[in-house]
Amino acid sequence: MSSNPITPMYEAMAGGGYLLQRFTLPACNNDFPDNPVLYQKLATAWSQNVDGFTRQAIAGNPWTSSFAAAQNGYYNPLTTTIPGGAAAVDVAWIAFPNRLIQYLGQDQTPANPYHLPKAMLYQLADTGALVNYPIPVTRCPQADWSGELKAYGPYGPRGWLDEYCEFSVARDARGKMVRIDFTCENPEYYQTLWSVSPERVAEVYTAALNFGAPQAQWVSVSVEDLQLVDPVTHKPVIDPQTGRPGYNPLNKWNSGTVAMRANGKFSGGAMHLTATPNTLQTELGLGAGATVQRSSGNLDPQALICCGVFGQNYRNSDPHIGQTINLAVGAGTNISLADPPGLYIQMPSFAQYQLPADPKLPPGASAADCWHIVRGFETLIDPITKTPYPGSFILHAAFQLPLAWVKAGVSFTLEDITIDGTPITCGSQVMETFEVALFGRPIPPKAPTPTQSCAESLPVTKSQAQPLQIMFQPLWDAYYGTKFDTPVHQEMNLASNSSIIPPTLKPGQSRQALALTCSLPSGETALPKEKWPKVLFTLPNGSIDTDINALVVDMVPNIKYAVPGNTYPDFAQLLKLEVSVTPRAAPGVRGVVIVPAGQTVSPAIPPAPAFLVIAQANQQ
After folding, report:
1. Claim to verify: residue 519 and residue 414 sit in the same structural domain
2. How far apart are CA 15 and CA 31, in angstroms?
3. Which residue has the higher pLDDT, 619 or 165?
4. Distance, CA of 597 to CA of 588 (rounded, Å)
């Protein structure tokens, strides 16, 4: 990464204010400081993806839910002028997973049956060994411990770390903790970076995991370590869009909370988020959903999240984010995530840390010296106000002894440092001393935001087919076919860790195999071929793009996975498509609409934004 942040691209408008020209890379970080051509390719692809996430967030869910569409209290800064002086505001929360405290800890309301002490919660946060701690299915109006219980989720190898921050703990041959990596980087960024240069992704992994570490603990990450392989043949799976192997987000350097740095047996790390709800696309959706003023009011965050049906109850993050945004919009603003959009680690509070006495410590040494900003920046200047943002833009941090201390011969390890008098034995103890934050930018509203009833699932007779995710069929087959166990012994598949990024086709391509997951009113019922729905791609104005033809060649009525952004797996349907594009198709992003057999497209079936990209005819 570059040591200097990217300057966001705003245009000063003749009538006053600023219009964002493209979304800036996370934390204004540049992973191609040595290659301006690839930087521009990455920056363009990233802005296109975030613009799609933003339009999806504003669209909401008009297909299967009532009072959850046209969430216009959230604005798109690519199309909305920001007044000069419109300051960003921070929304911050403790990074430690509060659901562990709520569902397993002591003195909670409603009370849980476990009453575990904090020391036990730290261990569970580090291991995810939650198989013996099922939690309530019913969470509204509050957690119902007298009803049905289910395994603690999210289920992935770091699924329980669901506050948009995850970590891994590296230990040496003695089992001593030598480093803790914390990340809040979103998976969509790494998927986008991989599509531009897998080699650079491997270099970023290597540089980040070795940052500030003794050379004896350095890792060497290869492209082969990170690529997607067929679950049967174990051969690389080629992404038709790039002609190169696809990306495996749960690779050996980014899976779980355990890392080894001993005796040449190196594995593990935390490079980007992997818990299924920890995605940027979902966070933007939460932000937009939280702008809707609800009949429940906004004084109680639990009542609001139940009414609005956004995010997950009892997190530190989602209820707090939702209430803060809802209050801001209710006070007479529209809001969007400030550019660069993302969630960012904040500086810890080191007042509660204590170093052991050691004569070889340099004068003035403090526990703050053990905090290394690996990726991102402690401070960025807001280009709108020309003043610092009210918080940090840290993407990745490591807690480890400084090399200078190691070379000086200090005799202690991380486990001899104390927090509130307790030695550090778990990475989650450090996690509890810092916050994660997003930055919102409120502006005067275009129109008042009306109060709506609580969002509810529509009856099947009134629901429409909801597009969920689309990708090339070979990638889907590999992701969905790759199964893995989890700490709570709930089998998952790698499709849950894919990203909602639309595939790209070129004008003139024909019979391209795409996989479209969706929620059909028919549910898991197998349909005869004559009852299969039609799939149509739409132009930005909502009309059908007649230069794209999609043929449904197969339908699977009962796939099961956690659609990226969701907390738990659920059943969905899969439409296998053959898509052809005429040579005259205009470049740009397309929506998609799924039309039931025997019906024609109409305004009653709204398209889902950003489900396909048509490239420039000569684009490489």
Report:
1. no
2. 35
3. 165
4. 28
What's the token pair of residue 533?
Answer: 């729905």
In a domain, 113, yes or no: no
CA dist 406 and 398 (Å) reads 16
Give the pLDDT of residue 52. Answer: 99
Number of domains composing the chain:
2
Given CA atoms 230, 234, 239, 245 in this order, what sign does their dihedral have? positive
Domain-located, residue 115 = no
Residue 620 lies in a domain: no
DSSP calls for 111-171? PPS--B-HHHHHHHHHH---TT--EES--SSS--TTS-EE--S--STTTT--SS-EEEEEE
Q: Which two tokens stand for residue 599?
A: 């019906």
> Does pTM surpass 0.90?
yes
Domain hosting residue 31, numbered range:
1-90+150-456
576 and 466 in a common domain: yes
Q: Is 203 exposed, middle or buried (CB count within 10 Å of its CB: 0-12, 13-18, 19+)?
A: middle
Strand duo 258-262 + 166-171: pairing = parallel
CA dist., res. 201 & res. 193, Å (int):
7
Beta strands 177-183 and 166-171, pairing class: antiparallel
Q: Given phi > 0 = left and psi -120 to 50 = alpha, else beta, which region is 324?
A: alpha
DSSP code at position 523: T
- φ/ψ of residue 183, rounded to 5: -135, 145
The DSSP 8-state label assigned to residue 352 in this structure reads G
- Locate 187 and state its tokens: 């998976």
Whether 197 has a pLDDT exceeding 90, the answer reads yes
Q: Are residue 49 and residue 158 in the same domain, yes or no?
A: yes
**What's the CA gap between 134 and 582, in Å, rounded?**
53
- On whether the CB atoms of residues 170 and 268 are closer than 8 A, the answer is yes
Are both 512 and 424 inside the same structural domain? Answer: no
Query: Which phi and psi (to 5°) does residue 199 adopt?
Result: -65, -40
For 472-515, the pLDDT digits (tens) are 999 999 999 999 999 999 999 999 999 999 999 999 999 999 99
Phi, psi angle pair for 220, to nearest 5°: -125, 110
**Do residue 319 and residue 343 come from a single domain?**
yes
